[in-house]
């Protein structure tokens, strides 16, 4: 009997432990769901704005206002006194519980949302309570400028001045975010404007920086931005992209980085009589974003509408980096420099500046104003620096040296097939020369290599005897083929390779 009781107790303990584990799992699931705020299914306002909500089946939440409005509307049309008929309501609930009326099917609107209710991509993450809230940034954990630049050196070739400037600016910016104010002296934002030709590494530099700092990054194209009310993306859409990159975490988004490319395309239009909705108007609209303001942005969408919830984001601690090629800026700089030349024996020749390669580095605020950027806009981008155009030696280094260089990527791919891939110096120079002719900077390198590697990547898996492939200058120039090394056959040293020139 005692044994029986002990067995019963053990079984009961096992059952209880199973129940506890199941409850724990359910609670964990609830915790995951509770990371996001509830959003009203009708008005699309989040819980932080409307307060506690009514919970309905299929993960549907309705705010207090919408619920009362719905009930008021229904009560106005209660012609048959159905709402005041308890018997009818009991029958209605009974039928609904028993899968509804016969021969009648109701469409469940929540089913149209996929998993019921509103998807998480349109919800905001709940803010942590003040007790659990961690400091936004620890100033001790912010890497100093020399460490930021050292990490950038591993991925970005050349552009030493640009890397130094951006490292210092980012360090100062996040010190500002971490400290807020210092002795009641507020530190201004370190918004940047980088100027450089196409393909010199502007976007790549910012992407690498955001990855190293582990902060959310949003990349927007200024060509798609228009004044509010016109066809195109609203100016606030850049902040909406940042919120999406931060996984709808408002606090995380408020210390992220926004990179706006092709900023030269929103310069003032010259000699136009129509409304400049994609030029000066966009610059005017961006002023409050750059300086710092509370902006209402849609969650999970690029445009505001009645079916998308809105979130309020403060841009005070968001770092804005603008970049552009400014193609006609060189001529403006040359004209300014030529006017400054003096007359006499010590006068500089006016054609001196025509031969200068890096003349873009002499840019001033006045040059940018003449280009079409309004003074207020430039004033909110205090740090202006330039990137050099890529020459042939830099392109060769880009092919070979970075940690994620394109040559290393292809070598890794062929290693999976147990094949070594090599590029001789002549081949790299030939690729760089072809890229220089295209005049699109580093972007041309990948396109050229993709073209020449296509046949090799297609043929290699066919033959298991191939041990090594050497890309030659002749192959790049179209006068020969790559060198194929074949693994030795039976009876010979297996490490010995036979070289075959492919014609």
Describe this structure as you would to a colleague.
The protein has 18 helices and 15 strands. By secondary structure, it is of the alpha/beta class. It has helices at residues 2-33, 47-50, 64-76, 86-97, 145-153, 160-179, 202-213, 237-245, 250-253, 280-291, 329-339, 365-371, 375-379, 392-400, 406-415, 425-438, 443-459, 473-477, and strands at 53-56, 60-63, 181-182, 185-186, 192-195, 217-221, 257-261, 294-298, 310-314, 319-324, 383-386, 420-423, 466-471, 483-487, 497-501. It is globular. The strands form 5 sheets. Strands 6-7-10-5-11 form a 5-stranded parallel beta sheet, sandwiched between helices. Strand 1 (53-56) and strand 2 form a beta hairpin. The protein folds into 3 domains: 18-122, no CATH class; 139-386, Rossmann fold (3-Layer(aba) Sandwich); 392-501, Helicase, Ruva Protein, domain 3, CATH 1.10.8.
